[in-house]
Amino acid sequence: xxxxxxxxxxxxxxxxxxxxxxxxxxxxxxxxxxxxxxxxxxxxxxxxxxxxxxxxxxxxxxxxxxxxxxxxxxxxxxxxxxxxxxxxxxxxxxxxxxxxxxxxxxxxxxxxxxxxxxxxxxxxxxxxxxxxxxxxxxxxxxxxxxxxxxxxxxxxxxxxxxxxxxxxxxxxxxxxxxxxxxxxxxxxxxxxxxxxxxxxxxxxxxxxxxxxxxxxxxxxxxxxxxxxxxxxxxxxxxxxxxxxxxxxxxxxxxxxxxxxxxxxxxxxxxxxxxxxxxxxxxxxxxxxxxxxxxxxxxxxxxxxxxxxxxxxxxxxxxxxxxxxxxxxxxxxxxxxxxxxxxxxxxxxxxxxxxxxxxxxxxxxxxxxxxxxxxxxxxxxxxxxxxxxxxxxxxxxxxxxxxxxxxxxxxxxxxxxxxxxxxxxxxxxxxxxxxxxxxxxxxxxxxxxxxxxxxxxxxxxxxxxxxxxxxxxxxxxxxxxxxxxxxxxxxxxxxxxxxxxxxxxxxxxxxxxxxxxxxxxxxxxxxxxxxxxxxxxxxxxxxxxxxxxxxxxxxxxxxxxxxxxxxxxxxxxxxxxxxxxxxxxxxxxxxxxxxxxxxxxxxxxxxxxxxxxxxxxxxxxxxxxxxxxxxx
Length: 631
Prior knowledge:
Residues 281-434 form the AAA+ ATPase domain. Belongs to the AAA ATPase family. BCS1 subfamily. Keywords: ATP-binding, Hydrolase, Membrane, Mitochondrion, Mitochondrion inner membrane, Nucleotide-binding, Transmembrane, Transmembrane helix. It is found in: Mitochondrion inner membrane. The chain is α/β, with parallel strands linked by helices. Among the domains are: 95-222, no CATH class; 236-353 and 382-430, Rossmann fold (3-Layer(aba) Sandwich); 435-486 and 515-578, no CATH class. 43% of the residues lie in helices and 14% in strands. The protein contains 18 helices and 16 strands. The chain has helices spanning 5-42, 49-57, 60-91, 104-114, 203-220, 256-268, 271-276, 295-306, 322-330, 353-366, 386-394, 435-446, 463-466, 496-500, 524-536, 545-554, 559-610, 619-623, and strands spanning 95-100, 125-128, 138-139, 157-160, 165-170, 173-184, 189-198, 224-230, 236-243, 283-289, 310-312, 337-340, 403-408, 426-430, 468-469, 522-523. The strands form 4 sheets. Strands 9-8-11-12-13-10-14 form a 7-stranded mixed sheet, covered by helices on one side. A hairpin with a 2-residue loop joins β5 (165-170) and β6. α12 runs parallel beside α16 (545-554). The longest helix is centred in the C-terminal third of the chain and has 52 residues, at 559-610.
């Protein structure tokens, strides 16, 4: 018993210690609760601003964050002011210009850039084959014989890479060029912008750069004519550049070309004369006549002769209306050729006030109505009216300084208001080919390329004086042809095995020669005699110039065969034309008969609708059948 007494004393002392600690903890918890309650009572959110600020400032952590925000904001403001001022100071020493891709100045700068020696050594370029026939980039394989064996006809070209800055010197001034490519529009169309910065404060440097770029562009386009078309956004887009066509290549009756060329040149030089008399500085030409008579080719040659670009106005474009046409005409430059081809086809029922107004009213009446089942789809043509076309040509907002060319195959279908002076000042008829035109065309085909453009048909010249020439193709050395010479050999494109394999052993029918065939050498007098024989076989005003050109293309290096076969070809052409006219006449008769029958049916329906519905049938009407009288 005495041995367990110390152990019991130790256990009791431990329990008393734990009980004292628990009592102390409960006392501390009670004190803390009372303090928290007092603090909560003292931390009530004040309702006035000074008390609120005093409360917030009592938190030390919040004061530190506020100091950090104020100091950081001040430092950021100083940084922005510094760099903004620095950029402003630096930009004050630069002149910056932007060039949009839709503007012609963008093309000027691209041509100028392609001629800079430093650009040919650029380390970062964009290679493209989509040059759109423009001379605005460096062409890699332009004159290199190594690329001539490529099957593809597209040429490789260098373009400035997007978002890369190029540095170069211009008149001892530092210059930077950057091409920015942005994606705009609903369909993701890309828009190009060229930014040019020059380290100078002299604006004459920028003016000198633009003038030099324009001179380089004009020099590059000296023998070319640019064509522009409109897009769906009513903007003019550069389509292509074509070689200028010589006026001597256009074969018309004597005096026709001189009248129009002299009139157009006088118009371009008479701007002050028009202004002094209060006459709008506009000129319009209407070319009408048979298809294939050379109207479009003549306009191409006139634009090249005058040094003007061609802007094509397509009146049948989907979505084109009066406001869009007015916007396009107002966007024309002051000196250009505006072309409206087949102006009679702008409206399906002819171009006059009555039909155009009826068409517009019909479209407006049918707008909003549901399409009946089985009905054809709505027309996809333009909603252009004649009044809108007239206002665009000579309205208050019409562009001045431009030359308008309009072509048509149906002169009688045009409204008199459209072709009156002031809109179409000069009307020129293009007829079918005459004997004079046939002779001129034949002579041009077989004269060499280096020969003068005049027709050398002077029978009084001696053959020894004129010498002999070839037709512009390779000729056998020493080979000279005379009027009794046999036709030049023809190389067939068909093999003997294919000919033997055909049914009946007949060779396939073809017309034409290989480009590797040899052409005979002809003397100038021989060409003149052959041209006379050729023209005598052509009936006056029966064959179009396009048909004659197509015929001569088949005999490109065979002048003797061209003369020998022309009579049979003319008979075939006239026979086919007669048959075609007969078919067209039969179709017109059938169409007229169907229209008359439809008219009779409509008259019967109207008569039946006008009759009283409640009238009782009489004995006579029951006995006699209904009669339909036809006229």
